[in-house]
Amino acid sequence: MKTEISDLGLLLADRHKKPNQSTSGDLILSSKKWKQLASQHRERAERWTLPYRKRRATGQMHPIYDFLFIYYRNKPSQLEAWHPGHGVRLEEAPLGETFKEAYYRVENSYTSLDPSNMKETTRHRLQMALRLCQSVSARSPAFGCFGMHEWAMVYQGDTENEVRHAERLPLRLSQAATDAFVRSRPIKCSHFDAFRFFSPDAKDFNRSQPSKDARLDNEQCGCLHTNMDLYKLATQCMPWVGSELLWVCFEYALTARQLDMQASPYDCTSLGFEPIKVETSAGKLKYERQQRSLSEAAKPLREELITRLENILA
């Protein structure tokens, strides 16, 4: 799984060594360079967005891949659009549909993001994203949840509470066996947006009752969904944090979502994914190993998001 910041990110990280920067320290990209970066970004994004559009048009949604477009509500066009992020000046980049005047300014023939024009609601959103990232980063990771949130969502077959893939993916076990496994152990879910989709009768099985207002106190970097949400936070902080960071968060979230569904009660073999049977000892060990690996991979992404938000809000 790739988690490194790509081309533009490397330029930003090393810009103090580069001659192509303005007196303010901003990185300057020639017209040829930024157009190349924008084209590369759109090409890789379309490998995901074009198939999604086709599936949506035919009503044949993919339970793993399309989750990132549906749940996080980031339109394909928003993923495809390229933005350099704060601290970059673009040569010959006219204001318009992509580089909108609400976010960008032109000064001395160079186009760049202008935080001074940021609305207070936008600044608040970025501040909250920063606080959440800092809080999660400072808290020790917790493991051993074994992806039980997906099981709690289908407890007793409550169709109003996230038995959403039943028409495409059957349960691996019978409903009775699935319910029995949910009842067999305490559930340790710290993520509100996962917990809120629990079947009503499964919520009491959770060791805590996480709420939206307590996210700063509950979310931790071992949680699969907390780490997957880096993509959501990057999306909410666009165009300020830049498309390079958004993209690596998207790639990361795809990998995390795959593990999420492999460990779920759904049978994903028709999609080409073998189950991780968390109802067995071997399955629990396998899930936790991958969960720990994903937690480590999320750290540099969260740190980069923190750094960029601190710079933007300064």
Question: What can be said about this structure in brief?
Answer:
This protein is 48% helix and 5% strand. It starts with 6 loop residues before the first helix and ends with a helix.
Overall helicity: 40-55%
Distance between the termini: 32 Å
- Helix and strand content put the structural class at mainly alpha
- What's the total helix number? 12
Output the helix-strand order. Answer: HEHHHEEEHHHHHHHH
Number of domain modules: 1
Considering the chains and any ligands shown, give keywords for the structure.
globular; 314 residues; four-stranded mixed beta sheet; 12 helices; mainly alpha
Report on the architecture of this protein:
This protein has 314 residues and is mainly α. It has one domain (7-313). 48% of the residues lie in helices and 5% in strands. It has twelve helices and four strands. A four-stranded mixed β-sheet has the order 1-2-4-3. A hairpin with a 2-residue loop joins strand 3 and strand 4. Helix 5 (120-138) crosses helix 12 and helix 10 runs parallel beside helix 12 (281-313). The longest helix is centred in the C-terminal third of the chain and has 33 residues, at 281-313. The radius of gyration is 21 Å and the shape is globular. The relative contact order is 0.15.
Strand and helix map with partners:
Blueprint lengths: L6 H7 L13 E3 L1 H28 L8 H4 L5 H5 L7 E4 L12 E4 L2 E4 L6 H19 L9 H6 L21 H9 L8 H4 L19 H4 L5 H13 L6 H20 L18 H33 L1
